[in-house]
């Protein structure tokens, strides 16, 4: 046995004392005042007060104490004082509203503006790109501009050429000069021949004055700009009119934005585009769309929107990435009801909000189903279900819905009401004081109206769709962007191959719904540039795949519905897997084992 160091014993003892003192401060020192600011009407069942946790309302005990999850003091469960006003009302005290971070807003009408996001690149203006050619045939003797990217001014000498033909033409000029008085037309013709090679009058006079032939002649730039391509090297021979350089004037540039097929109806010529450049942090630019491509690219399914920008300061350079936004005014939807996206809880088929009402007995919320219109950036248009002036919850809606489920009232996932169940046993006690039993299933994220039987051939035709989905999931767990994008694209291709006529009766109508939702989730897969976009699409697709699996049960093997509570900004998200082991596709290697199995579909 090793001898224990005396110094180690002293350090350990000191650490223990500090830990006990900290525990007393956190859990003991303030305990007497923990409920001073919280007054509740007590609920009694069978003569006993029910105690719960304000942060974890699934905890129900018959005596006060600490929450077995977070350690907070339990509070008495409030009476539902508004039950006589509306049996579906969810009452919440001011304390509960604060703890759940609930906030509300008044529903109003506005002239809606749809925000369309665009991605693109900076390109040179095609009208300002020139080919600098040689007007003299011959051999390149000197190159004064030796690399691409160099700026040249108009009239600048950029190369020298030796031309035997030009030497001969000079000799003819000298001979014609001798007989200029007797045959002036011949002398004039000799000069014109040199002018055809773009020699100026001044250059011709210098040749006549010197009386000697020049071997090398300069090539001067026709325009000012940047050399974007060097087409020749020293010693090469060029023909008359042969291109030496390509020169681009970047004082004006184009921004070519991709407009998805689904957004093309909102974009028109003349719309203002506010855009930023990835490499110019903190700067924003504004210009208008001058041209919209009338033809959609058959491969990428996008059209190009062209924006012209005066680039006099030279900040924008070709191939820079740009992100833009168009605010399209919906003239045919003026004065429409609009609500924040955070206020809407969407189940896939139903959209609900919680309407706030004040009574003399306090505040309560009632669930209301709404019909949504267009998505406008961070808000939705509402077609029906709400009226102007009503007050709705815009934050903390999931907490309100959880309270409704625990009270057995209509909620997002249980429109008819009924006590919700949870998939966790946190050591709570039931009202009678007995230890609660662990519940094996959780309330599903989506509901299935009924299970339908499809024939063997139809099930076989669905197998490639599931195979691509599962490979997509595996690629996300491995943080493999390229592999995930490829498998998602494969899934889209397999979806397009499925013949809808194989589904009969009710199954046909359901398949049309599933196909539509899956197509929307996979619509822009090939355009995504990072793995988080793929994970967001995977979440949408998984919601439909789970319902479809529960409806058609197309797989011969058991498949597991798995859930990560931290995905989608802590709202939670599900996925399918053929094995029980948790490998999280929403976080990959950063939280690979986060999650749990919530259901088995056999």
Q: Your description of this structure?
A:
The protein is an alpha+beta fold. The protein folds into four domains: 83 residues, conserved putative lor/sdh protein from methanococcus maripaludis s2 fold; 88 residues, Elongation Factor Tu (Ef-tu), domain 3 (Beta Barrel); 123 residues, Beta Barrel (OB fold (Dihydrolipoamide Acetyltransferase, E2P)), CATH 2.40.50.100; 146 residues, Four Helix Bundle (Hemerythrin (Met), subunit A). It is built from eleven helices and 30 strands. Strands 5, 6, 7, 22, 23, 24, 25, 26 and 27 form a nine-stranded antiparallel beta sheet that branches. It has a six-stranded antiparallel barrel with strand order 8-17-20-19-18-21. A four-stranded antiparallel beta sheet has the order 9-16-14-11, with no helix packed on it. Helix 7 runs antiparallel to helix 10. The chain is elongated, with a radius of gyration of 38 Å.
Summarize the structure.
The protein is an alpha+beta fold. It is 26% helix and 28% strand. The relative contact order is 0.10.
């Amino acid at each position: 046995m090793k001898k224990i160091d005396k110094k180690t014993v002293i350090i350990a003892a000191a650490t223990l004392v500090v830990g006990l003192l900290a525990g007393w401060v956190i859990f003991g020192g303030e305990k007497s005042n923990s409920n001073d600011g919280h007054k509740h009407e007590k609920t009694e069942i069978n003569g006993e007060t029910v105690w719960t946790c304000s942060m974890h309302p699934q905890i129900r005990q018959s005596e006060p104490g600490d929450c077995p999850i977070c350690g907070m003091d339990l509070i008495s469960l409030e009476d539902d004082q508004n039950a006589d006003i509306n049996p579906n009302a969810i009452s919440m005290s001011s304390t509960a509203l604060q703890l759940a971070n609930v906030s509300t807003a008044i529903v109003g009408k506005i002239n809606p503006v749809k925000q369309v996001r665009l991605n693109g690149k900076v390109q040179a203006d095609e009208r300002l790109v020139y080919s600098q050619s040689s007007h003299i045939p011959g051999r390149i003797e000197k190159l004064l501009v030796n690399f691409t990217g160099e700026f040249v001014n108009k009239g600048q000498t950029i190369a020298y050429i030796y031309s035997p033909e030009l030497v001969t033409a000079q000799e003819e000029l000298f001979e014609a000069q001798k007989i200029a008085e007797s045959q002036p037309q011949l002398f004039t013709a000799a000069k014109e021949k040199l002018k055809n090679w773009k020699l100026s009058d001044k250059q011709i006079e210098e040749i006549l004055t010197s009386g000697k032939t020049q071997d090398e002649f300069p090539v001067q730039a026709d325009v000012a700009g940047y050399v974007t391509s060097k087409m020749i090297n020293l010693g090469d021979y060029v023909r008359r009119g042969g291109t030496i350089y390509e020169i681009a004037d970047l004082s004006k540039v184009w921004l070519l934005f991709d407009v998805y097929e689904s957004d093309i109806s909102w974009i028109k010529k003349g719309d203002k585009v506010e855009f930023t450049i990835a490499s110019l942090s903190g700067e924003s630019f504004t210009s208008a769309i001058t041209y919209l491509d009338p033809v959609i690219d058959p491969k990428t399914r996008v059209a190009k929107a062209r924006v012209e920008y005066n680039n006099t300061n030279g900040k924008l350079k070709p191939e820079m990435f740009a992100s833009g936004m168009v605010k399209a005014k919906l003239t045919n939807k003026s004065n429409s009801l609009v609500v924040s996206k955070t206020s809407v809880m969407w189940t896939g088929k139903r959209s609900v909000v919680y309407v706030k009402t004040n009574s003399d007995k306090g505040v309560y919320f009632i669930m209301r189903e709404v019909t949504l219109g267009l998505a406008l950036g961070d808000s939705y248009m509402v077609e029906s279900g709400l009226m102007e002036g009503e007050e709705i919850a815009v934050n903390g809606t999931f907490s309100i819905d959880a309270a409704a489920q625990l009270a057995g009232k209509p909620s997002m996932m249980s429109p008819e009401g009924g006590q919700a169940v949870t998939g966790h046993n946190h050591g709570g006690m039931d009202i009678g004081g007995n230890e609660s039993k662990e519940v094996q299933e959780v309330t599903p994220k989506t509901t299935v109206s009924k299970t339908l039987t499809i024939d063997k051939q139809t099930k076989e035709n669905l197998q490639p769709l599931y195979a691509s989905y599962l490979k997509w999931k595996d690629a996300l767990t491995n943080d493999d962007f390229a592999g995930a994008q490829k498998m998602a694209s494969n899934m889209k291709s397999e979806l397009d191959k499925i013949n809808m006529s194989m589904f009969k009766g009710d199954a046909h109508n359901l398949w049309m719904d599933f196909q539509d939702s899956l197509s929307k989730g996979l619509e822009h897969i090939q355009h995504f540039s990072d793995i988080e976009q793929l994970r967001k699409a995977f979440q949408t697709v998984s919601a439909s795949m789970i319902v479809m699996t529960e409806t058609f049960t197309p797989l011969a093997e058991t498949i597991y519905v798995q859930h990560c509570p931290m995905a989608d900004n802590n709202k939670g998200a599900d996925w399918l897997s053929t094995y029980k082991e948790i490998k999280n596709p929403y976080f990959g290697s950063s939280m690979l084992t986060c999650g749990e199995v919530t259901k088995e579909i056999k």
